[in-house]
Amino acid sequence: MKKTYIIASLIILLCLISIIEISANVTNEDSGLGKGPLREDNKGWIGGKIIWEGHNLRNASIKVFKDQKLRQIYTEGLILDKEGIYALEIDDPGTYYLYVFVDDNGNNKPDKGDGMGIFGVADWSDVDQKPIPVKVEKGKKLLGIDIEITANINEQGQVVPVSIFGHSDFTNGISGKLILPDYKFKNAIVYVYSDPLWNNKITQTDANENGEFALEVPSGKYYLMAIIDENNSNLMDSGDKFGVYGMTRFGMYPKPIIVSSGKVIMERNILIIGKIDASGKPVPLQASDLPKTKPEDSLELIGKVEWLGHETKNAFIQAYTDPSMAVAVARAKADNNGNFSIKLEPGEYYLTVGVDADGDGKYSKGDGIGLYGTKDAINELPKKLLVTKDSQKEQIKLTITAQFDDSGRLFSIPQEEKQEDNAEQPIQVDTDSPFTGISGKIIWTDHKITNVILIFAEDPTFEKGVRVPLNLDENGVYACSASVGVHFLMAIVDNNENGQADDGDGIGFYGTGFLGDHWGTPHAVTVIENLTTPYINITITALLNEDGKPSMTTDGIKAYYGEPDNIFDTEENIQEWWYWEKGVSFTFNKNDNEWILVDVYEFEPKEMQSSNKRSNKGIIYYTFEDYIWSVNPDGTNRNRIASGINVTGTIDGQKILFLDSYTGLNMLYPYTQTLTQLDWKQTGTQQALSNDGKQVAFTREIADRKRITLMNIETGIEMTLPGENIDFSCPSWSSDGELIAYAGSLPLSKDQQGKPNRDIYYYDTVSGRTERVSDTPIDEFDPAWSSGKTKMLVFCRAESDHSQLWLFTFYVNG
Known about the structure:
It contains 2 helices and 67 strands. By secondary structure, it is mostly beta strands. The chain has 5 domains: 8-161, Immunoglobulin-like (Sandwich), CATH 2.60.40.10; 173-284, Carboxypeptidase-like, regulatory domain (Immunoglobulin-like); 299-412, Immunoglobulins (Immunoglobulin-like); 427-562, Immunoglobulin-like (Sandwich), CATH 2.60.40.1120; 680-810, 6 Propeller (Neuraminidase), CATH 2.120.10. Strands 2, 3, 5, 6, 7, 10 and 11 form a 7-stranded antiparallel sheet that branches. The longest helix has 8 residues, at 8-15.
């Protein structure tokens, strides 16, 4: 997560700076530490240095705050030493927080180039870094409190990290940091490529001594490699170190970075994990530099390059020993028919092929690439080629599966001839051949839908959006291409075909709609490259009137109130829907086979024994728009129960537990229609009720760690789950109450970076034993048990920019 760089409180704070000298004036000749007033026993002192290399710090000012949010100022003063040495006299010893502002151009106002620093914040873009308190005691000197300048003001007046400043003109870009402990990056270069084979370089930049870098690139998909040129030879040779974004250890695959229009993608840090050994091969950073004592005999392998509908002359083959494909260990050139031979020692290799179609000696429009063992060089990971003596009997097949366009980016090419004018054909929903986009259905009961405009927006306010006309089939089903990323969707049924949302048009939002008298909050939709996000169904819940105000459609009323208790046809073209327990009825007029809302009548709600029509197949309880709802599995009898979130319950439906933001935890007994409030002084979040309804598990902060607590509802007795995890979350009970699954993360080791990933665990309440279900470098969360006798556990696993569901089955024998 990143900080918002427009930090209003700091900008206001800067404008209020009044430059005054502090009582302990500091000069080059005399820092004042240990002299004069510093000997008074009833005061305390803070001393240190402001760090901003290459800058005169005589125009720096320092502020002392009483609170961590930097709102209550205690004192402030001007630093007179150009090297940034300071000393502060504190009359009232206590705990304080320090903030520094450097008026770099000396014009007495905060503007472009000025610097800022907070004691304890080494990376301004890291929201987890907080100001560190400084405790001042009577008669004591607290020295060595150095404050580094970590942010600048850019041309727009925004506060941005130092690594971003100087690139304020970026509309699209990537920034990050090279990671290698205790290392000064003097000859480090960061390269950006459009392909994972490192063929088409887009741009490059030098990292500073701290490893920070920033690059401007167009919108697209990119791969990053960092090289430390230790011998300054301008070549990647023996002794040089390297890292690839996405590779947290040697032998992993590169990870792409997707840059959207108008965005700078930050914190794309690159771990330095490899080096080039004496033989010129890439090896792990910790590997010995000694070459092999006796190299094995090379084997000559044969193969063929194929490219459907194209010639394969000027094909170049390269072999790599690791999936980063940073340094080739062997190369070969194919003949005009695509035949080649290459010599490799026995072992595992990754093979790539590139075809310079125009023979210009560089990768440009029309050139193609391929990876061994894949059908898509862009979206599939390369397969290993195991080289043994038997490999000489088989022919290696390399197929061109991606091609460069005008801008130097790669696009996938199918393994069959393209149809002419394919771009003009309407998109068809084909689950066997997914495209990048969404598919679903526009729902408006008894209404003939012809013209629909779908609006893609980056935020739920829809201040800015992209309008896309939809092609629907006779059932309202659609498929639509979309850019990769997160979108909010609004559908306009343009009945009068004027391209506007006005009188007579229908409106719907994905995930919500017009709820009684207000619009709900739309849900986000994630689009993943080369994947179709299905079931994006949008119900038209509102009809716009002449005055532009919305009224609910029949679908909108059912979505909000559920099925009506009674429906009366009072006249041939008039129908009334009555919701007795909700105290509201609706009157519709029929117009061309659709019902138009003409009147709403509210009255005192009445109890009805028949309104609670329960399904013999059970009832589903869920949270929607901060309310608890119930519905039969077949979608009938949808009812709003109460306001609340985080609903959980027993499998038999006897008890339902949920959290209300005003009254706390509530227990609902559906069969008796009674509601009780649990009188607990302290609870937590992510509640999970056991199947017998006697215990509840929830997460709670204990000593700066999230732990899972079990509480007996009747006695209030608590127990905290044991374990070495620093972060417990998402508790879930098995149907028999014996196992509690949860997500947990372990502390990072000294050589690990970033935020720890979670794995899935379970605690056995019978044996008191904790077991690990999964152990992967990927983040896993939200476990949930099946309700049957067989213990089946489903959970989410983060995959790049989306999540997948994984299923574990526990057998009787464990």
